[in-house]
């Protein structure tokens, strides 16, 4: 599923043979964000509950994905809620941006779908 993972493995294999030019090295560089996301997405997919599904519109862009949550208990039982996540380039220093695509009434979600949990991030 993770096509970026194969790219990273290929890049790591090329590190030992640094016979390429500087221009081709710059095309092979992978951001810290993408290196972190390969590991974290694999962990996410392995530990995701059955009521959640993750979807990558473009498998080569692990920094943009959608999460669908279908609660099987509680007040929102039977609902289907979609969230869009975008991980910024400065990830690990800057939190991901999450937006609820499904119109819902929740005290931490605005009418436009923005998640309001700034107190967790120290803003």
Task: Describe the protein's architecture and organization.
The protein contains four helices and four strands. It is of the alpha+beta class and 123 residues long. It has a single domain (31-118), classed as Ubiquitin Conjugating Enzyme, CATH 3.10.110.10. A four-stranded antiparallel sheet has the order 1-2-3-4, with no helix packed on it. A hairpin with an 8-residue loop joins strand 1 and strand 2. The radius of gyration is 18 Å and the shape is globular. The model is unreliable at 18-26 (pLDDT under 50).
> What count of helical segments does DSSP give?
4
- Which fold name is given in CATH as the topology? Ubiquitin Conjugating Enzyme
What is the radius of gyration computed over CA atoms, rounded to a whole number of angstroms? 18 Å
User: Major sheet: order of its strands?
Assistant: 1-2-3-4
Reading the helices and strands in chain order gives: HHHEEEEH
C-alpha geometry: globular
CATH architecture: Roll
Number of strands: 4
Q: Catalogue the unreliable spans.
A: 18-26
Mean pLDDT: 81
Quick summary of this structure?
With 123 residues, the protein is an alpha+beta fold.
Helix-strand layout with pairing:
Blueprint: H1 3-15, H2 22-28, H3 32-47, E1 52-55, E2 64-69, E3 81-86, E4 97-100, H4 118-121
Antiparallel strand pairs: 1-2, 2-3, 3-4
Subunit structure: Interacts with UBA3 and RBX2. Interacts (N-terminally acetylated form) with (via DCUN1 domain) DCUN1D1, DCUN1D2, DCUN1D3, DCUN1D4 and DCUN1D5.
GO biological process, one term: protein neddylation
GO molecular function: ATP binding; NEDD8 conjugating enzyme activity
């Amino acid at each position: 599923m993770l096509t970026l993972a194969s790219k990273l493995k290929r890049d790591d294999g090329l590190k030992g043979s640094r016979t390429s030019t500087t221009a081709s090295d710059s095309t092979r560089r992978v951001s810290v964000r993408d290196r972190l996301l390969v590991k974290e997405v694999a962990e996410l997919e392995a530990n995701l509950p059955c009521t959640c599904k993750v979807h990558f519109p473009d498998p080569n862009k692990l920094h943009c994905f959608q999460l669908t949550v279908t609660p099987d208990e509680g007040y929102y039982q039977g609902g289907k809620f979609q969230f869009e996540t975008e991980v910024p380039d400065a990830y690990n220093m800057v939190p991901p941006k999450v937006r609820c695509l499904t119109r819902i009434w929740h005290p931490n979600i605005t009418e436009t779908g923005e998640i309001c949990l700034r107190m967790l991030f120290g803003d």
